[in-house]
Each structure stands twice: as C-alpha cells, then as structure tokens.
Amino acid sequence: MAVTQNDAGAGRRPSAWQVLTNEHRYGIYFAGAALSNFGNWCQTLAGILLVYRLTGSVVVVGLASVCQFVWPIVLGPWAGLVADRFDRRRVLMVTQVIAAVVSGTLAALTLTGAVRVPTALAAIAMLGVLQAFQATAQIALVPLLVAREDRELGLSLSSSQFNLARTIGPVIASGLILVGGLGAPFLFNAISFLVFVVLLRVTRPQPQEMPREIPRLRHTLAAVRGNRTLLPLFAIGFVVSGSVDSVNTLGPAISVELTGTDEWTGWFVTAFGVGAMVSAFWLVPLLRQVRRRLPWTMGLQAVGAVVFVLAPAPGFAIAGAVAFGSGFLLSANRAVSIVQSLIAPDLLGRVMAVWLMGFLGGRACYALVGGAIADAAGPRTAGLVTAGTILIAAGGAWTLGSRERNAPTGLAGERHEARRTSMSSSPQRHVWVMNNDLPAEVADEYNRWYVETHIPQILTLPGFVSGERLELSPVQHGTKTPDLRRFLSIFEIEGDPDAAFAGLRAAMAEGRVDTPPVAGSVSTAANFAPLGPKRTVVRA
After folding, report:
1. Of 147, 170, 165, the residue nearest 31 (C-alpha)
2. What are phi and psi of 114, to 5 degrees?
C-alpha cells in the first residue's frame, strides 16, 4: 500500500522481510529473478567455454561477450518504449519464454554434439537482445511491486540477487559441467526461465500507468532535458557502475603482486558480492533516515577501492573489496531510486533504459581506460585514479544535494512527495479540491482527525498519491476572498480518477476510511484536470 512519505519516514523503518512478504508478492518475484540470474551466469560461463573449445581463439571468445552484452546499450531506447507501451510483467514473461526456447535449443545441440560456432554465437546474441528488453522491463517493474517508501529497499534487494548470482552462478555452472557436460548449464538456464514465468504469474503488481499517446523517443529526451537533476544522476550512475570493474580488471594483477599468483582473484570478486549482499539486507533499511546518504555511500565505495588497491596483504584486499561492494550497491540503488521518484510513471521504462545504457556503458569505458592505465603505470595507480573519480562524483552529489535540500525526495533526503517530469500531452493527473467551513467548537478536533487519520487512510488507496489540509491565511496581499471558506483540502490523483473515486467509495462503505468524528462541516468539492504537464524549477 502507498502511504505518505512523512508517515513512512517517521513511523517505521521497513525491513527486507516486510518487503519480501508484502501484498504484491515481491518475495515470489525475487525468488524467480534470482533463479533466472543463476541460470544466466551459468550460461555465460558455459558459453565462454563452448566457444573456446570450438575455436581455441580468445578473439572469438571476446566476440561472444560482445554479442551478449552490447545489446542493452544498442537497443536501450526501444526497450524503454516497449516497457512503457506494454504491461511490464507480460514483457518479462514473453522474453523469458523466448529465452527458454533459445537456451533449450542450444542445450540440445551441445549435448548431441551438433553445435557449431555460428550457431552458438547466434544463440548468445539472441539471448543478449532479449536481455536488453528484459532488463529495462524488470527495473521498471520493481516500483509496481513495492510501496513507494520501500522503493529503494526493493531495488537493493533486486540488485542483491544479481550479485548473489554473480558469486554463486559460476560455481553452479562448474558443477553442472562436471556432471552433465557443457550442455547442462544451457538446459538449467532454460528451466530457470520457465520457472520465472510461472512465478511472475503469481505476483500482484500495482496497476501500471500507460501513456495515452504512443510513446516517442523525443518525449524521453525532453523529459531528461527538462529536469536538470537527471543528467547529473546519470553521470553518477556511470561512475558508480564503471568503477566496479576495477575488482575484475585489476584483481588478477593485485593478486599477483600480493601472493605471486592470480588465485586470489575469485576471492576478491566473492568479497565484493558479499559486501553488496550485506548492504541490501541490512544497511539499506538502517541508513534510510540518513540525510544526503548518496555522497557518503560513494565515499565508502572510494575508500573500499583505495584499501583494495593499496592492501599490503590479501586479507586487507578482501576487506577493501567488501567495502567496495557495499558502497557500490548503496550508491547505485540510491541514485536509481531518486531517478525513479523524479519521473512520471508513463515515462519510467524509457528513462530507465537511458539509465541502463549509461550504467552498462560505464563499465566498458572504465575497463578500457583502467586497463590502459594499469599497463602504463601499474594496477595500484589505476585503482587510485578510479577512486579519485568516485570522490569527484561524490562531491557533485553533495553539491546537487545542497541545491535539492528543499526539494521533494531529492538528494538531501527530505521526506516529501517527489516531483515528477512528464511530457505527455494528456497527463493522467487530477487534483481534487474541497473547501469547507467548520463551527469553531469542533474545528480543532476535526482538523486533527483529518490530518492524522483521514489523509493517511485515503493515501492507502490506489490512485491517491498526495494530500494536505490548509487554512485560509490572514495575509492575502489585497486579494478579496468573499466566496472562499476557511479550510481547504487538496488531493492529487494519478491515473483514472473514476477508478480512484470508486475505490474511495468502496473503502468508506467497508469502513477502511473513517467518517468524521464530529458533524458540522459544510463543504464544496471539485475535481480539476491539468491543461499541460506539471512544471517545477529547482533554484540554486
């Protein structure tokens, strides 16, 4: 259920267990996504080994990686259009079914010895294309499976299962290859896709707001340009994600310098995943009340990077990798949570596709630049340069937070309803206004009930996203107010207002929304529709 941001911040601190067991069945989605990711990592390792055994060429293995991972960047804008135009859960289910067919076919060809290099590369590329549409729909689906105040924790849990799969998936793949050969991981992946489809059918996401006109790429670009907070956040995501590749790129060299062998590399990667997991289940709920936490978590990521590359012994490097992974997950999910809070629901898929393009592109850029610096000046220098870029970005986040400290759900951590950018020509937003008078003897009791009970109850209902109670000010700057009554209530509605009011009437009939404790309110009410997009300016 959606509740007020103020209530959410002051009244409770959500736990991972509460989110996993919520009414939308997020835990079922989490289990299915985790299993699917396990399968993806199994297939990734098996695909590398298959191509290498067929060709003996490292270049062709690199080509296989390009075939798999380039598509989310190339197809990102179109994946976002699909995620906004169609039901995101259905998009996920369709991609999973097709992926199961592709993986199952590759498994059959591999197990029978009929697989050839072009076939393997084509299958890997097809799965990469499907992954582009799956990833965008998936990150845009999470807000529909959790309450608004639990969004950041929901995203963190979603990221945690990815990191868990990255840690455990290769181990599972190795065992499957030993038992059933190279085709076994492909078969396991196909089964994991189908299980995810079944579990997705059981989830109960909130209604998805669809755009009233055909989504266009220009709407996405206009939305990003129209909100000057988004581009800095995209840049922060680029740095936060890109710096992570230091563990993979520099890990072997750090291991050799510390021990004379690269055998510790796997432990470094595992430690990074452990840090991310701990953050998702423990630190995200704990840090929810910390103001401006994004710069601080990026600072933790930078410190972890420094400790990792300057470690005098493997144990110190593992500790640095844990901090590195913890800071990464906290920073990445805080940034994407803010981005999602600033975007209207009908634009969410497209903007998340742009986010993913930068997020994934950052890793490729950092891998290339970091590798070049490591070859020229050593891995420790490369790691320090990476940490420096994180600190510079953290400084930018702090500056942005200062600018946003009076803005809703900004980097300063204020607990208010978020500004949202929408470029739809027919915004699905309405404002319900009620103006009333009260006898003096009951006004205080009525208004206390309205603010403390009535508004929070209404905001648990679908469609109602904000509400406030106001009193006519004695200072009117010369404005005449003969027809205005003393008290004013304003509710903002997103989506179909008829459905929202039908839900309100049903809730009142069922007793889920209380009636006033005192009589005597005389009121008029009206529902207003916007003539254009809601525009907001943030002043430095």
Report:
1. 165
2. -95, 0
Residue with tokens 């919520």: 22
Which residues partner with 490 through β-bridges?
433, 468
For the chain, helix (H) and strand (E) counts, in that order, are 22, 4
Cα 144 to Cα 345: distance, rounded to the nearest angstrom: 10
Task: Using alpha carbons, select from 30, 31, 24 the residue that is nearest to residue 145.
Answer: 24
The position carrying tokens 């582009």 is 132
User: Residues, the chain, total?
Assistant: 540
Structure tokens belonging to residue 535:
């525009």
Nearest Cα to 339, choosing from 362, 357, 365, 364? Answer: 357
pLDDT per residue, tens digit, the chain (540 aa), is 333 333 333 344 567 778 888 888 889 999 999 899 888 888 887 887 888 888 877 667 767 777 777 787 788 878 888 888 889 999 999 999 999 999 999 999 999 999 999 999 999 899 989 988 988 888 888 888 888 777 767 777 777 677 677 667 767 887 888 888 889 999 999 999 999 999 999 999 888 877 666 666 666 666 666 667 778 888 898 898 888 777 766 777 788 889 888 778 768 877 887 888 777 667 766 666 666 788 889 999 999 999 998 999 999 999 999 999 888 888 887 888 777 777 766 677 777 777 777 777 777 677 667 777 877 888 889 889 999 999 999 998 888 765 444 333 333 333 333 344 443 333 467 898 888 887 777 788 888 888 888 888 888 888 888 899 998 877 776 555 556 778 889 999 987 787 788 778 777 766 778 777 665 555 677 888 887 766 655 443
Which regions of 129-242 does DSSP assign to beta strands (E)?
A: none
Residue type, 320: G
Q: List domains and CATH numbers for the chain.
A: 1-150+157-208 (1.20.1250.20), 216-424 (1.20.1250.20), 429-474+481-528 (3.30.70.100)
Phi/psi-derived region of residue 525, left when phi > 0, alpha when psi is between -120 and 50, beta in every other case:
beta
Q: Which residues of 416-435 are buried (b: 16+ CB within 10 A; e: fewer)?
A: ebbbbbbbbeebbbbbbebb
- Paired residues of 466 in beta bridges: 492
DSSP state of 256: H
Angle (CA) 250 173 153, round 5°: 70
Strands (E), 335-428: none
Q: Which of 433, 432, 441 is nearest to 484 (CA)?
A: 433
